[in-house]
Amino acid sequence: MERIVALESTVIAHGLPFPENVDTAFEMERVVIENGGLPKTIGIIDGEVRIGLQKEEILSFAKASDVMKVGTAEIAYATALKRNAATTVSATMFLARLHGISVFSTGGIGGVHRDIDWDVSQDIIELSRNDIIVVSAGVKNILDVQKTLEFLETFQVTVLGYRTDYFPLFHCRDSQYRLNLRVDSPEEVVEVLKDKRRLGIKGGILVANPIPEESAIDFDEINLLVEQAVLSAREDGIGGKALTPYLLSKISSLSDGKTLRANISLLINNAALGGKIAASPVWTV
Ligand code: PSU
Ligand code: MN
């Protein structure tokens, strides 16, 4: 049962442009398999929850512009009103766990937005409730990283640095944010989850897996782009669910696609680690 690795669909429908989104989604599935896992991309089609979208369904999500973006709070709306919906980290975690899945690979989780009053992602709340392993490359510095880390702690989310002592910043490997928990193997990640469950401690494990060295971008370089993007989001009056996709596409165009290439590389890297974690021999629960 633990061989399954959940993958989200918001990154396909709202996070990456076409055709990179569909290529990346397929490549992530391939890499999960290569590392011993069984990929299931999660989404909602005509109100039906799908644990494992078909290739054509992934392609239609990648091309469509009318697919909803749903967190856990909006799942029941999408199912009741028979909508097509891409699931964010929170919704994917919830649906994965409901179907007995314990491992989920994504790019970056949502968190506390910067320079905007009170935009805090549902992802953090779901991580505090749901005992599943989420592999991410940390968070983007389109967010307020310090506040995001503080929220994760407040909500009792276990944050593990994977072969690192620092919280990675998505496009950047290095950061000034020190982590106090480090693991060095997929087995250690599984053992931590097993003990959370054994002790009855609620909530998930966020595995912070740094982007591969060769695709990483310098902090100063990315920070400049983000500052510009946050500024134009303000000028354009962008907020709510549109904000994260807006910032992502803005920094990609400002960087001539360099951030897009980094994004793809870390997604594939996280799919590989998810596959290894799922295939670990130490699972017993
Ligand atoms: N961060 C990324 N790429 C993404 C997302 C976040 O680098 O595609 C998506 C994920 O699905 C995440 C969601 O769960 O955005 C968070 O959106 P919001 O900030 O609206 O909660
Ligand atoms: Mn938000």
Percent strand: 5-15%
User: Helix segment count?
Assistant: 11
The average pLDDT score comes to 96
- CATH fold-level label: Indigoidine synthase fold
Reported for the largest beta sheet, the result is: 10 strands, mixed
Weakly predicted, low-confidence segments = none
**Helix share bin:** 40-55%
Element string (H = helix, E = strand): EHHEEHEHEHEHEHEEHEHHH
Per DSSP E runs of 2 or more residues, the count of β-strands stands at 10
- Strand-pairing-aware structural class: alpha/beta
Fourth-tier CATH superfamily name: Indigoidine synthase domain
How would you summarize the topology of this molecule?
Layout: E1 4-7, H1 10-15, H2 20-34, E2 38-45, E3 48-51, H3 55-63, E4 68-70, H4 75-80, E5 85-87, H5 89-98, E6 103-105, H6 122-129, E7 133-136, H7 145-154, E8 158-162, E9 182-183, H8 186-199, E10 205-208, H9 219-235, H10 243-254, H11 258-278
Parallel strand pairs: 1-2, 1-6, 4-5, 6-7, 7-10, 8-9, 8-10
Antiparallel strand pairs: 2-3, 2-5
